[in-house]
Amino acid sequence: MASRVYFSFHYTDVETFRANVVRNHGLTKETGKAGFFDASIWEDAELHGDYAVKRLINSSLENTSVTCVLIGTDTWKRRWVRYEILKSYDRGNLMLGIHINNVPDKNRQTFAQGRNPFDFLGFTVSTDGNKLTFQEHNGTDWGIYQDLSPKIVNWGSQYWGKGYKFSAWVPCFDWTGGDGYNNFSTWVDGAK
Fold this sequence. Notes:
23% helix
């Protein structure tokens, strides 16, 4: 059965068409099937209140099993991309990232690879193993992530009192260099 994929991206990458190259690549294949279903949202988050945006993201994540973060120049620091990543983890979605700055934009320009947003997100496990607190890095320091409450867990003692970055296990690919057109389904199947 095909995975139902939630795409997370910075809205600027839609305006320059790079995000759409990935999201719509299945439409140009001979079979017309990409092996996944798109469940992302298009609304500009800035036009809604915080509660409405969270509710919109949460409902869009329903019935998805994989979250694919399309990584452009500033994706790593976007508030709602961070929320989509952490909420995806919180609900058990598998995740992967795809760098899209090598995809020519509407002006046929490419850009240097953007920073990996999974390097700037993680969590700590309490010293008794009963609470997971989401963390974010602002480019200078780590701090407690404010848009999601800590999660009650029951982790083994080997994890107690430790912190983890998502980049330690979430795979990232380059759309152009990794032939995403032909390999996307394989990448989704291998999401962590």
